[in-house]
Amino acid sequence: MDDDRNVTYITLNGYVDVEKYRYFYFVIIFTIYILIIFCNSFIVCLIVIHQSLHEPMYIFIAALLVNSVLYSTVIYPKLLIDFLSEKQIISHPVCHFQYFIFYSLGGSEFLLLSAMAYDRYVCICKPLRYPTIMTKTTICVFLVLAWLVPASQVAGSAILSSKRKVCHFTLEGIFCNNSVHKLHCVSSRGLSMYGVIILLNIVFFPMFYIVFTYIKILIISYRSSREVRTKAAQTCLPHLLVLVNFSLLCTYDIIILRLESDIPKTARLIMTLQVVLYHPLFNPIIYGLKMKEISKHLKRLFCRVK
After folding, report:
1. How many CA atoms, within 13 angstroms, populate the side-chain half-sphere of residue 3?
2. 75, 77, 148, 166: most buried, per Cβ within 10 A?
3. In which element (H, E) is residue 82 found?
4. Chain centroid offset of residue 155 CA
């Protein structure tokens, strides 16, 4: 507690040998952050520039990549500051703000993938009605809801958590995630139940919907012509790879929280870094290589450069 300014500071205790490897950590994280910004922004610019990519599927991909950049920006600048600081601390209000943004954008990822699944379902299973269903208004509504719904729900959890009395001032992590609840003097069953409801609404229900939708697409594609099967594979596979990747990383986040005291500090740091390292870089690579139209424009661009 800082008595002069009456601000509570939380010590981030998840770092390993910062004094010894601080510049190594800094260079690695800074390089990855620049790559994340460049790769995601490059694909987004490609989609914006080329008129042929102004379709619902590519608009959702662009939104997903923008979400990845925002998701990384919540974590990486603070990591870079901490690596160069003598003490790895964060104020209590900022900690809850990071918690709010981190889980809001994580929920948005699942809802954007749900919107993509619906778009693919309409395109493949109801091709004649696709232009009338996937209008600009529909796309805008999906995008607004994808960011607004998780933010409104996680905001309640963040506000309730920030109002509770804090007795512990050390967080076993490198950024503020669900571990902030362990700082409270007394655990709240109501807050835990609210967290479960949020988890169901912005993670499990969208994930079940995505899986159900793609199973239906698979069944209909199997009964259709070879051309339909090829189209379904080309457009759905990248989305499924992104879903599986992000779901595994979310599972990591839950495992870290549940097994916090049972795993070594170094292993916990590595697992935590995986949550924020792989996915933001994985998205542009998958969509750049696996989406035929984006890949075509990338090849043309590189040929011009050569």
Report:
1. 0
2. 75
3. helix 56-83
4. 17
Alpha helices in 84-169 (DSSP H): 92-125, 130-133, 136-163
DSSP 165: P
Please, what's the largest Cα pairwise distance for the chain?
A: 72
- Note the helical H segments in 15-55: 18-49
Q: Whole-angstrom Cα distance, residue 125 to residue 40?
A: 30
Report the 10 Å Cβ neighbour count for 192.
10
Residue 240 has pLDDT above 60, yes or no: yes
To the question of pTM greater than 0.90 for the whole model, the response is no
Pairwise CA distance, residues 157 & 145, whole Å? 19
- Tokens standing for residue 81: 């500051």
- 229 vs 217: CA distance, rounded Å: 9
Q: Which helix (H) or strand (E) holds 281?
A: helix 265-290
Query: In 10 A of CB 126, how many CB atoms?
Result: 13
- Cα 280 to chain centroid distance, Å, stands at 7
Cβ 113 vs Cβ 243: under 8 Å? yes
As a whole number of angstroms, the distance between CA 57 and CA 294 comes to 11
Query: β-pairing, 170-171 with 89-91?
Result: unpaired
The one-letter amino acid code at 98 reads Q
Q: What is the crossing angle of helices 92-125 and 205-223, to 10°?
A: 20
Residue 89, CB half-sphere, CA atoms under 13 Å: how many? 11
91's enclosing H/E stretch is strand 89-91
Q: Are 158 and 95 in contact (CB under 8 A)?
A: no
Per-residue pLDDT tens digits for 249-298: 777 767 666 665 566 777 777 777 777 777 788 888 877 766 767 777 77
